[in-house]
């Protein structure tokens, strides 16, 4: 096997850790930085090094990948801490954070001023999906950046779609998560309506799987729905954040989204009930509570 260039990863949350798993399995050396050093330290192994300083982490790396909490973190880490400024001209920066377009544009301006190639990306799938190599990657940026990213991205997943040369992947990721939230809300209402009418949940889901409404989403969440498993694969708080970003993007281009506004209100309410850290399946619990039905896992 030919030598593989180091990649620097900024952000060692669940998704970042899953990326490390993919690169380590492919034999690629990885430098990991995280604001909370313990998370980076937990990923250390022969091919993975935890870096205490973000500028040192990117120094000399030809590829830097960031996956951070939100737009504020993206600006702070990449611009405020001087991370992009520490990259050599010609470095490829790939960002997989789900953020607002203005924050991404600010990074694009900083990268361009330093001669750094900037590729925007969206990851479709949970950490487990990423680890299995089945994530969908939404990509946008200049052709040179797309070409340079090939080897590093191929080690993550073969499922890659190039959607434009600028911020298009940001917008499509927000649209995808907006649809995710809306779909989950309707599924929650349908399941609770049927259960409240005396039809067991398993019967409802099995029947839906045999209709035209059968979907990858119902299959993906079906097991957790049946077992009433609310351990987070995607936190309610994170989906609320993404829906809020989608609403902000829509407002900026003059598009009213009344249904999505209502779904965001349901996510707000679920978080207020104490389910912010639980899976976004918590919308089912909220529907149960609003219907004065027994709530999964509450008082049982």
TrEMBL record:
Keyword NAD: yes
Pfam families assigned: NAD_binding_11, NAD_binding_2
Coiled-coil residue windows: none
Domain 3-hydroxyisobutyrate dehydrogenase-like NAD-binding, chain residue ranges per copy: 171-286
Transmembrane regions: none
GO molecular function terms noted in the UniProt entry: NAD binding; NADP binding; oxidoreductase activity
Residue ranges of domain 6-phosphogluconate dehydrogenase NADP-binding in the record: 6-164
Keywords: NAD, Oxidoreductase
Cited PANTHER family: CYTOKINE-LIKE NUCLEAR FACTOR N-PAC (PTHR43580:SF2), OXIDOREDUCTASE GLYR1-RELATED (PTHR43580)
Identification of the protein by name: Putative 6-phosphogluconate dehydrogenase
Native organism: metagenome
Upper taxonomic lineage: unclassified sequences, metagenomes
């Amino acid at each position: 096997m030919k030598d593989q260039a180091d990649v620097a990863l900024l952000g060692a949350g669940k998704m970042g850790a899953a990326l490390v798993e993919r690169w380590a399995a492919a034999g690629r050396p990885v430098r990991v930085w995280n604001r909370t050093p313990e998370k980076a330290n937990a990923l250390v192994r022969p091919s993975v090094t935890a870096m205490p300083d973000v500028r040192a982490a990117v120094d000399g790396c030809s590829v830097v990948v960031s996956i951070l909490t939100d737009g504020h973190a993206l600006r702070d880490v990449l611009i405020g801490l001087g991370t992009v400024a520490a990259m050599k001209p010609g470095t490829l920066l790939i960002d997989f954070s789900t953020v607002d377009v203005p924050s991404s544009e600010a990074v694009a301006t900083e990268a361009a001023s330093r001669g750094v190639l900037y590729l925007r990306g969206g990851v479709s799938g949970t950490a487990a999906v990423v680890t299995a190599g089945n994530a969908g990657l939404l990509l946008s940026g200049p052709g040179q950046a797309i070409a340079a990213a090939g080897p590093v991205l191929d080690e993550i997943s073969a499922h890659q779609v190039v959607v434009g040369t600028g911020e298009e992947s940001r917008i499509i990721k927000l649209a995808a998560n907006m649809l995710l939230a809306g779909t989950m809300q309707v599924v929650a209402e349908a399941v609770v309506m049927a259960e409240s009418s005396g039809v067991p949940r398993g019967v409802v889901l099995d029947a839906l799987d045999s209709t035209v409404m059968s979907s990858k989403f119902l299959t993906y969440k079906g097991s957790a729905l049946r077992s009433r498993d609310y351990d987070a694969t995607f936190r309610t708080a994170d989906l609320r954040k993404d829906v809020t970003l989608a609403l902000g993007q829509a407002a900026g281009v003059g598009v009213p989204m009344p249904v999505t506004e209502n779904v965001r209100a349901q996510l707000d309410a679920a978080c207020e009930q104490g389910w912010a850290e639980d899976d976004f399946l918590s919308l089912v619990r909220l529907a149960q509570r609003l219907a004065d039905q027994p709530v999964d896992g509450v008082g049982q």
